[in-house]
Amino acid sequence: MKKLLFIVILSLAGWTSTQAQVFKLGGNIGLPMGDASDISDLTAGADLYVYFFDVDSFFNLGVNVGYRNFFGKDIDILGASYTVDNVQYLPVTAAGRVTLFSTFYAGADLGYAFGLSDNTDGGFFAKPVVGIDIANAIEIFLAYDLYTGKYKLSDVEGFDDYKFGSLNAGILFEF
């Protein structure tokens, strides 16, 4: 079912890219929060946005496909040291932005994050974001990524529910 959903979303993204008005590509770096701070000290990611629908000059809709990596860290469990594997996701979302004063914007991405690593399953993804648009060429933003789904710390344990979060700063280039 997840593979079918993924194919449908990517097909929609491909179809809408022929209607696209704006492409944005960039990266971000962040600090893990919530359950993620127990297993990671740093996260990094990349995003490709396709905005294809201007409701008016203040509101845009589009789609996003991204990549996120939570870098694993060494943790102690009952006195034993354990190295946590990296956790990777592929978020596929709908994206909406409201622009104020032709420079500042706020919005959110909502969708599904596919788990790319063996220690995670996919789950719900949400990303509220605020930023500054510089000359319709570069955007600098702050965002909070939230993932909910299933995660397992080791091959011995089963999957448990989790909420991973990260506070990110990033840059996007507009094409």
Secondary structure: number of strands: 10
CATH class placement: Mainly Beta
Rg estimate, integer Å: 17 Å
Helical fraction equals: under 10%
Largest sheet entry: 8 strands, antiparallel, barrel
Based on CA inertia axes, which overall geometry fits?
elongated
Task: Please write the string of helix (H) and strand (E) elements.
Answer: HEEEEEEEEEE
Low-confidence spans: pLDDT under 50, at least 5 residues? Answer: none
Total of DSSP H or I helical runs spanning 4+ residues: 1
Q: Structural class of the secondary elements?
A: mainly beta
> What integer is the average pLDDT?
85
The span between the termini is: 33 Å
For this structure, the CATH topology is: Porin
| Architecture per CATH nomenclature, i.e. the level-2 architecture | Beta Barrel
What does this entry look like structurally?
By secondary structure, this protein is mainly β. It has one domain (2-174): Porin (Beta Barrel), CATH 2.40.160. Helices cover 9% and strands 70% of the residues. It has 1 helix and 10 strands. The protein has one helix at residues 2-17; strands at residues 22-34, 40-56, 59-72, 74-77, 80-83, 87-100, 104-115, 120-134, 138-151, 160-174. The strands form 2 sheets. Strands 1-2-3-6-7-8-9-10 form an 8-stranded antiparallel barrel. Strands 4-5 form a two-stranded antiparallel ribbon. A hairpin with a 3-residue loop joins β8 and β9. It is elongated, with a radius of gyration of 17 Å. The two termini are 33 Å apart. The model has no long low-confidence stretch (mean pLDDT 85).
